[in-house]
Amino acid sequence: MKLKIVIIALAAVICLIVREPIWMTVVLAVCIAALMIADITEKRKLEKQIKELTEYITRVQDHTELPGIAEITEGSIGILQSEIYKVVTILREQYSSEHKQKKYMSDMMSDISHQFKTPLTAISLMTELLMEPGVSEEQRLEYAGKIDTQINKMTWLIRNLLTLSQLEAGVLEMKAERVVLKEMMGDISDSLSVLAEVAEVELDCSVSDKIEIKADKHWLREAVSNIIKNCIEHTAAGGFVKVCAAQNNIYTSIVIEDNGKGIDKEHLPHIFERFYKAGNSSPNSVGIGLAMAKQIINSHGGRIEVESEAGKGSKFIITLYITGNTPDL
Asked: Which of 117, 142, 169 is the last residue of a domain?
């Protein structure tokens, strides 16, 4: 369009200067030819742009990844080009989100099915034995007790799976309150003292009474308890589990260290995954405690890291920032 205006303006100026009919006719003829050429050029350019947009949409349909768009041009086609790219980007993000949700649900159902298979099989077997006519009263009580144990295990698993799902979805609200870390660690130590004593593992929590944080006391205690419990279970008799903490103007760190079995290098990237079991996991381990601990700490705007070497022990480092991203914290 700009080129056409320039040609017409130039022709008008030349006609005003020349004022000869013959030359004016020549100028007009050249002007008409130039306008026709400009029109053909613009049409070809428009056809090329439309073809590029059509090819781009085809690539979007044929590829799982979002292809890059050619350089955005000016004018109405450029605006259309930009809007198509925006719409495609939004639709691709929505598709990706839905795909991830479907995969998450599929993985979750597979995990649940796997975890429930063993206790359900045990319950079914015990029920069949209870129905045998020659079973004594003592045996009936034994089988009933085993059924009750498996039901309690399933109840615990369902409750923790629900909590983990809420944490992963970000719908479990963390309630901020003032927490004296030494008091919280004292509660944890008391609750796990019997487990440590039975395992013949020394549990040492050395935390200053001056360290205070803002956190959801219930859920943070749950997270730290899960980690300490995991350390106790993977430490041999005569070993130790030590907990210490430090605080500065930026963050509070809680370090949980043991001299237990340690974790092989290939397992380290996966130990916080739901239902993941390393090679040295105990037979009764479900593989949900560390995953829940990580999600709880993430919900407090913090992070958890682990350093470990097989045969030498593990060190879990929890970092809680003074200005976390948890609501109201």
From this structure: 169
